[in-house]
Amino acid sequence: MLASDQDRLNCFMHGLKRRNPHQPEFHQAVYEVALDVIPYIRDHPIYDRHRILERLTEPDRIVIFRVNWEDDQGNFRANRGYRVQQSNAIGPYKGGIRFHKQVSLDTLKFLAFEQTFKNGLTGLPMGGAKGGSDFNPKGKSEGEVMRFCQRFMAVLAHHIGPNTDVPAGDIGVGSREVSYMFGQYKHMVNQFTGAITGKGLSFGGSLIRTEATGYGAVYLLDNMLRHHGDGLENKTVLVSGSGNVAQYTVEKLIELGARVISMSDSSGTIHDPAGITTERLAWLKELKNVRRGRVQAYADEFKVAYYPGKRPWQIPCEIAIPCATQNEINTEDARTLLNNGCLAVVEGANMPTIQEGVDLYLEAGILYGPSKAANAGGVAISGLEMTQNSMRLSWSREELDRRLQGIMADIHRQCVKHGQEGKRVNYRKGANIAGFLRVADALVACGNI
Ligand code: NDP
Ligand code: 2IT
Q1: 79, 167, 223, 302: most buried by Cβ count inside 10 Å?
Q2: Strand 76-87 vs strand 61-70: parallel, antiparallel, or unpaired?
Q3: Ligand 1 within 6 A of 377 CB?
Q4: Ligand 2 atom with the shortest distance to the CA of 381
């Protein structure tokens, strides 16, 4: 990086931190984009004149609200709800809702910022947003979850709509929660519209949406490996997490002939050295999605190793696919992966590697698929759910899978186009610049509003 670019980056980050104190995740997400975009802007001053980076790091608006609900014992409870509407430069605000006890404004601002670039990469008309609550769904009864979702949507409904802002799921929000929220929304506005995606198939949901994030991440990985003359067959893969993204990442990996040897949750990691089979994955899905159990039960059932309190990264592998949460790979984990000969890290989760870890991947020259490219398949099929809702038609599974593969291949092409550095492809740079351009050109065209 030129000294003048470094000065500009330092100055920009100084201002951003002053305006957004105590929000380290937001700082991290912005820094990772600014690193690539600031040198680009130097050579394309129109984006500087229009102050695009400054405008994109200031959300259009943030709604923060109280959610009152009643638990099974009749106690009145209160949580905090949020919706960060980051940018509608290229389409209605679009992004998931997260329910997790650690949800904060910082987390949701980082996610909404990332979402804006990711949605741009899909090529579909979707702006960026994220929402959620510090409500902890763990251990809550069915009735408590339903009442919370209804009260959350009772407030959020005033701020969303099919042409305004279209939420979906994320951590702690799956088809059950999306359906309760959709029911509440429909009840309030007396209209059946596609104002939320990830719905059940019988009421406006799209085929492949459940699978899309995990399948999409594997499609991107497959594109990356093929582009470098390699393939997935017989590769040893670590996956973290055991929720929606992890389950369908593992499913597609098995189908394409890779050997997946780990999964995890916030309590620990299972290590199945022979490789998770289709039958064992079906068992785990039932454990997680129906019984809502812990991953340790897999180790007990199939007599494999369980590492309590540990993440998978110390296990030797050729490919790592983090699918749990942000910053789940620290510097030491990244070093361990590289020392063990890992040749690719592809991010199913949002921003799962800390900044220094990403630097290490790039220095080592391994294939690194950043989250905004790798996990864009989920929101891409959400975008196609919106399309189907508008047409009042449903596409087949084959049609949607074909489109998903096409979108992930196109994201790969955009990364190569903007990230080629000599013989290597810097996918972080490619994704950042391609995503930035999609949104920036729209902002320039629409003027200073
Ligand atoms: P789920 O709630 O279905 O699963 C989350 C998984 O991650 C669980 O195994 C959970 O374990 C684990 N996890 C969550 N928080 C932590 C934590 N703080 N430390 C360790 N483990 C944790 O969520 P998803 O699978 O939908 O989301 C996973 C990641 O993928 C997130 O980063 C999300 O933003 C991202 N993503 C999701 C998309 C989607 O379509 N769902 C689309 C694109 C990205 P436990 O059960 O113990 O909490
Ligand atoms: O992080 C993400 O891309 C998501 N949670 C999915 C968002 C969506 O609108 O489908």
Answers
A1: 167
A2: antiparallel
A3: no
A4: 10
Q: Which fold has domain 61-192?
A: Rossmann fold (3.40.50)
User: For residues 24 and 29, what is the distance between their CA atoms, to the nearest angstrom?
Assistant: 9
Active site residue 140: no
Same topology for domains 61-192 and 210-374, yes or no?
yes
Q: Is the CB of residue 284 less than 8 Å from the CB of residue 262?
A: no
pLDDT per position as a tens digit, 103-124: 999 999 999 999 999 999 999 9
51: its two tokens: 């102050």
What is the tens place of the pLDDT at every residue in 50-73? 999 999 999 999 999 999 999 999
Ligand closest to 385 (CA) is 2
CATH superfamily of 210-374: NAD(P)-binding Rossmann-like Domain (3.40.50.720)
Closest ligand 1 atom to the C-alpha of 98?
34
In which residue are the tokens 């790091």 written?
Answer: 57
User: Is the beta carbon of 96 within 6 A of some atom in ligand 2?
Assistant: yes
Q: How far, in Å, is the centroid of ligand 1 from the Cα of 248?
A: 12
